TrEMBL record:
Keyword Nucleotidyltransferase found: no
Name listed for the protein in its UniProt record: Electron transfer flavoprotein subunit beta
This protein's record includes keyword Methyltransferase: no
Subunit-level organization: Heterodimer of an alpha and a beta subunit.
PANTHER family cross-referenced by the UniProt entry: ELECTRON TRANSFER FLAVOPROTEIN BETA-SUBUNIT, ELECTRON TRANSFER FLAVOPROTEIN SUBUNIT BETA
Organism placement in taxonomy: Bacteria, Bacillati, Actinomycetota, Actinomycetes, Kitasatosporales
The family this protein is said to belong to: Belongs to the ETF beta-subunit/FixA family.
Keywords, in A-Z order: Electron transport, Transport
Any Pfam family the entry gives: ETF
Cofactor requirements of the protein: FAD
Record Gene3D superfamilies: HUPs
Domain Electron transfer flavoprotein alpha/beta-subunit N-terminal, first and last residues per copy: 24-214
């Protein structure tokens, strides 16, 4: 029977753009271009490597996000994933991590899975907690923050590098893992991959398809609330220290004045 691998990929605002909150203090996803979260490219890469080593495997990428999140799915498909699932619904606006994990869990149950692979954190919300919530909702084993991952005989094995120790972890499938940016360089999509991705299936689902009520998600269902947001002050021009023999002293005085030394 085919090994079913599902990769959770998030479409995030480009960090090089001018990111802002909207008036209702949710992330303004319209104002800046988005892209596949870089950290999720590592998750796609590990899924593809595991699939390549398996006799028979299928990689599905899933996202919960606005219409443009399709770009993130296409990138993952062009890297080599087989198919995609896009959950999109106007009622998702303002959904927090609890709601997102609910929607993803339902979408993954709908797709079917043996192994779910996530990134270590998104590059916008960066809570790093979604994989754990997902494992709990799915009733699957949770093996997170892996810098090395492999699969054999129905068990997923990995290495987690901490500050004080390196742990080796193992769990029977079904399992949810998250991988770090140390897990292995993500491949670039080839021209052939980009062309092939255009023909790969993308299934669109909304809340009704997943049996989720609007009140369970969105701002109404959110358990967290952004109460205020203050813009970071604009950068100032800075101060140039010219070295005319006293450069070191001037630099030290500059740092001392600002309590850096
Ligand atoms: C239209 C929309 C509006 C939203 N509005 C808000 C809001 O107003 N306030 C709020 O708190 N949150 C909002 N969210 C949810 C938020 O953007 C995050 O998806 C969610 O809170 C997860 O938190 P994180 O990104 O910090 O996840 P992390 O825990 O940092 O993510 C870890 C991993 O989980 C997976 N993952 C995370 N998010 C997704 C996703 N959406 N799709 C697929 N995989 C994912 C990725 O593999 C990622 O690497 C909204 C989401 C959507 C789609």
């Amino acid at each position: 029977m085919s090994l079913k691998i599902v990769v959770c990929v998030k479409y995030v605002p480009d960090a090089t753009g001018d990111r802002r909150f909207a008036e209702d203090l949710t992330t303004d996803r319209e104002a800046v271009d988005g892209l596949l979260s870089e950290l999720d490219e590592y998750a796609v890469e590990q899924a593809l490597r595991i699939a390549e080593d398996a006799d028979d495997a299928e990689v599905t990428v899933v996202t919960v996000g606005p219409e443009d999140a399709n770009d993130a799915l296409r990138k993952a498909l062009s890297m080599g994933a087989d198919k995609a699932v896009h959950v999109e619904d106007d009622d998702l606006h303002g959904t927090d991590v609890m709601g997102t994990s609910l929607v993803l869990a339902k979408a993954i149950e709908h797709t079917g899975y043996d192994l779910v692979i996530c990134g270590m954190a998104s590059t916008d919300g960066s809570m790093g907690v979604l994989p754990a919530l997902l494992a709990e909702r799915l009733g699957a084993a949770q093996v997170t923050l892996l810098s090395e991952v492999s699969l054999a005989d129905g068990r997923v094995t990995g290495r987690r590098d901490g500050d004080a120790a390196t742990e080796r972890l193992e769990a029977a499938l079904p399992a949810v893992v998250s991988v770090t940016d140390q897990s292995g360089e993500a491949r670039y999509p080839s021209f052939k991959g980009i062309m092939a991705a255009k023909k790969k299936p993308v299934e669109s689902l909304d809340l009704e398809d997943l049996g989720i009520e609007a009140e369970e998600v969105g701002l109404a269902g959110a358990r967290t609330e952004v109460t205020s947001a203050t813009e970071r002050p604009a950068r100032t021009a800075g101060e140039v220290v010219t070295d005319e023999g006293e450069g070191g002293k001037l630099l030290a005085a500059f740092l001392a004045e600002r309590k850096f030394i």
